[in-house]
Amino acid sequence: MSRRVFPHPTPSGFAATPSPLLAAGQERGGGAAAGGGGGVRYTRREFLRLSLTALAALAPWPGQRWLWRPQSGGPVRMGRAIHPVTLYDAPRRDANRLGGWKRDDVFPIVREVRAPGLNAYNDLWYETPDGYVFSAWVQPMWVWPPQVPETNIGDWGFWGEVCVPYTDAREEPHPEAKVVYRFYNRTTYHVVGVAFDDGRNAWYKIYDELPPTGYQWVLATDIRRLSRRELAPIRPFVGAKRIEIDLSKQTVTCYEGDRVVFTTRCASGIGKRVLEDGTEEDLSTPEGDHVVILKQVSRHMSNRPQKPEDPVPADLFDLPGVPWNTFFDPSGTAIHGTYWHNDFGVPRSHGCVNVSIDAARWIYRWVYPVGGAEDDFIQGDKRVGTPIRIFKS
Q1: What is the pTM assigned to this prediction?
Q2: Are strands 334-337 and 353-355 parallel, antiparallel or unpaired?
């Protein structure tokens, strides 16, 4: 049975709401009004579990948007079920199953736990107030309070990222307009305009470079403007930078000279496969020596047919806002952030090198060439692009 779990609204700046529950540690049936007496005390975990259950009963889903975002302060850590996921009472394969979440359900993440996982290469679990969930199909998110709309965005606009679990992108700046895409947390977009609907809600105009180029509209409160500092190069004056990608170990390692400055797990191309019509398709990550030839903060990646007569691929994908792209091969192969899985350490891509969004952003900012905060793309070549060596150990 699928269960919907909501963040308790009081901690971490969440909006308050009347609740029949007592504060953690408060005695039930006690206090001056009740004449005192020994009541029941809740542990922190019991209180959070009861709070979440009460909120799920009190509020509709997904209409009460404030339930899964703070109303003030900084961001909070939450998770989104990419696919249906199971909730366990302990971070173990043989633990008791408590229920689960369906796709796009949202829940708070209390902490990360390292323990043997549901596969041989991933040992990351997330503790939630209601139990434990394996990380492979959970998107870890930073969820921010509603953003103040930017009314003067300049001639170029700005780079923004989705700061809610997800927001619907529409054909027109109106809540009843047709939904074109669902934009997920920490995906990045070029904001090029702003408009207001009849209810004075601000909407941002998002540029979409996927042919035929066009635009979508999203609520401005759901997009956080990326600061120049967040886009600034990391150690731009250090020489001898290089990247090594070990396909056997599924790791990406960044060097400055002989010193390792960053390493992360990845998910590379799945290799060769035979299609239904008998043809062979090679989805390997290209081995050999490469350099960074292009960088883009955002890229719409899709194998959607461009013409009505074109066949529809068996594994159709259409992924707007892929963040922090570092291209190194003319075929379009890149190191980039990933929001459609969280299972690194095994090949699973169409050739690109999937890494976490945090890792992709660090690599994007660290590699040469260096660019500015208002560049649609940054061009590189063999003279200036950071070398990338891809091999099997």
Answers
A1: 0.83
A2: parallel
